[in-house]
Records
---
Amino acid sequence: MSGLFITLEGGDGAGKTTQSRLLASWLEARGLEAVQTREPGGTRLGAEIRSLLLHGGDDIGDVDPRAEALLYAADRAQHIAKVVRPALERGAVVVQDRYIDSSLAYQGAGRVLDGADVRRISEWATGGLWPALTVLLDVDPETGAERRAERGGTDDRLEAEAREFHEAVREGFRALAREDRDRFIVLDASLPVEELHARIVAAASSYLPQ
Ligand code: TYD
């Protein structure tokens, strides 16, 4: 595969979407094809799964953590097969909000499923595709919640989880970054948008043809 796969990770309200948009525009300005996408919900099937996972409401009742993990993995299988691999094969740069690390942090550290199991089902779902670079926008859960409140709207099923859940997720992400320093860069999500963008560009540049 000739393209480049970059993911952005972090808690809710970390600013991933803003940064992935800015990075995709920067890549396009350099004449590269950038595919900006996300999980869950990067395909039509995925959009259905996303709406079940996040807005299923009371109708779906309590979602078992394993069922939740499998739904994220199903979304991921479809997305990688139909969107990400074809784009990488064309030589595009894929800039993606959330990937396997989100499952490891939310379903693993947050829901306390076994991390090795969560990793295995996502690796099976994706044929073991990992990004070259992962940007972790590290945010403390309180700031994340304030930013979401500023954005308006109501919290989805995961956002509405207790503070301890979001603390565990944050720690989960930080631990993943410590274990894989070659793939991750960790940035303080409270930095100004432009500053974060500059740092992300600097990190991505080293993976691009000069
Ligand atoms: P996201 O699209 O980032 O939320 P929003 O755009 O509404 O800010 O992610 C949706 C939620 O799904 C988020 O709370 C994190 C959660 N999630 C998991 O629990 N596991 C996963 O594997 C993924 C990809 C997301």
Note: DSSP finds eight helices and five strands in the chain.
---
Amino acid sequence: MCGIVSVLTFEKEIIECLISSLERLEYRGYDSAGIAYIDENSKIERIRRVGKVAHLRQAVEKLNTNSHIGIGHTRWATHGKAIEKNAHPHIAGGVAIVHNGIIENFEQIKRELLNEGEVFESDSDSEVIAKLISYHIKTGLSFTEAMKTSMPRLKGTYAIAAIYEKQPNVLIGTKKGSPMAVGLSSDGRSIFIASDSVALSSLAGQITYLEDGDFVICLKEEEITYKILDSSFSEVNRSLILNNIAQNTVTKSGFADFMLKEIFEEPNTALETFNNFGSPIDLSQYKNISLIACGTSYYAGVLAKYWIEDLVGIHTDVEIASEFRYRNPVLSKSTLYIFISQSGETIDTLNALRNVKAQGLDTLSIVNVESSSIDREAKYKIKTSAGPEIGVASTKSFIAQALSLLLLFVDKNKIDIKEITHAMNEVISQYEKIKNVANKIKNSKSLLYIGRGTSYPIALEGALKAKELSYISAEGYPSGEIKHGPMALVDESIYSIILAPQDKYFEKTISNAQEILARNGRVLFITNEGVQLNFGQASYLYVPKIDPTAQPFVLTTAIHLLAYYIAKQKGLNVDQPRNLAKSVTVE
Ligand code: M6R
């Protein structure tokens, strides 16, 4: 994962510019953060801190520099623990680099460089990049030539920004597999290279995106200039577009956490999605639908499969992107391939999309972050209306994805959006009750979420939210499957969350719950208002009964709030759970 940013400028405030960009990139990882810049004596200075960008901000607070060039990085650890020596930037022989991606052959390169007498400081794969560039400079190559010679040695993925202390007026970037945006300030006095346009939201008026193998060479002479070279080092034009990403001024607006705020925004997200929806495509030409995504976005796809097959009778497959991209799927011209992603940067989803595109087949993206890689590369696009989602756990974006999928296939007039949003708001108004139930659940050894029909994907989503936020092992299962194995787990240390809306599966789901109760399992029913259940030892949450097609939206808000309160009552950081990142840009 990781986020990178760099700047070459006539201005002096590079530290604040780097730090504020890193804050906007923190969704890519928060294991450590660091910056490096070339000072007025042409020496590289580096400051790194373990943990969030806030720690780095504190460390640089009193720093005064006249530097005009610098690079920054926020890390999600892949190779090497989250300790300072593994934090970026990495430096070798006056070259400093920041890297997003994974160098798969770093051990081999490292061995070769060790044999040449190089000494390594870190366990990171990225350090070999700095070492390799500086090694080539030592053999007599220029900084630019050393970059050009080093890159073909790297296997894997990378977006790299590099500076060299003997050329403090040169900033070089290159990429393969990981995204890279080059931004120009409106006054032309600064140029930036970063992982995405969000990092440059308040800095760059115009943006261009590099293609795989490209280099961007930025120079500060009389004025700031840049050229883009392709992998054969021929100059190429990449179109500049306006950077219309608004400055990220998202605040918690009085909520304790972004996640709570984002769950409370779910009804409005549904309303905005409904109001803004317009289909970009004529579906009549397709006989099959293939939905491809990861994590919560994948569960939106699982939910949509129920709707599409049931309501419009089109054969639908749902695929986990990391599997789809590496197996040999049978693709067809009569299939529409839909890629679902909040961030638009998930590497497996992006590469799955590229594989399908390479076969000349039709792709549609459902993405929340505009101008993200998936949004830019898909043929047809739907932009979800969730607004910025800061909490690492996807909440309101799931609502936007699911509703967009429903609206793509079902006539808007058949959906009663008022009923949906009203019911979701009613669930939210029960937050004290949900908090109390969470208190009963929080010390369980594990959680089992079960449901049938469209409640099954919500069970999957509930279990994912529970494990990522509260670190309790949790599974989502179709209710009918529990006696095929999971029932063996059931005892008084396990809580089962039964999603039992009053639909055509209701009686069957209740029977499954009774089987759990008969084995001393503890049970929470999430069912509809008006349902009479009387199992003494169980807990109950009642949600409004609405049109069965739309019922999953109401259940979702309930299980999101439940996961939130379980984690909160365990005293955990719900916005940035351990070991995770908002955008998964490595495979
Ligand atoms: O940005 P994407 O929607 O492509 O992300 C996919 C998953 O990484 C994401 O949904 C993840 O599972 C969330 N943390 C779940 O809350």
Note: Residues 294-297, 341-343, 346, 349, 392-394, 464, 468, 583-584 surround 5-amino-5-deoxy-1-O-phosphono-D-mannitol (CB under 6 Å).
